[in-house]
Design goal:
0% helix, globular, binds zinc ion
Length: 72
């Protein structure tokens, strides 16, 4: 069973990125518990990442995790 993920409120894309305190970009999806799930298998520790704001990978939307919607 695949997990369900929330969609961008503008374009319904389900992949997002954020910039931590460093220059590296983190790619992730947001599950229905509003929890970021890393799409990069090498990225094991998201706890130090700042997820505010998050950016959509497909359009120019950015906002808070709470702004996402379960249905595109
Ligand atoms: Zn988008």
């Amino acid at each position: 069973m695949s997990e369900e993920f929330l969609s961008c409120p503008r374009c319904a894309c389900k992949k997002f990125y954020s910039r931590g305190g460093e220059e590296k970009m983190f790619f992730f999806q947001i599950n229905t518990d509003l929890w970021p799930v890393a799409t990069d298998a090498n990225l094991s520790d998201l706890s130090k990442t700042d997820f505010s704001p998050i950016h959509c990978t497909a359009c120019s939307w950015k906002g808070e995790i709470q702004d996402l919607q379960a249905k595109g």
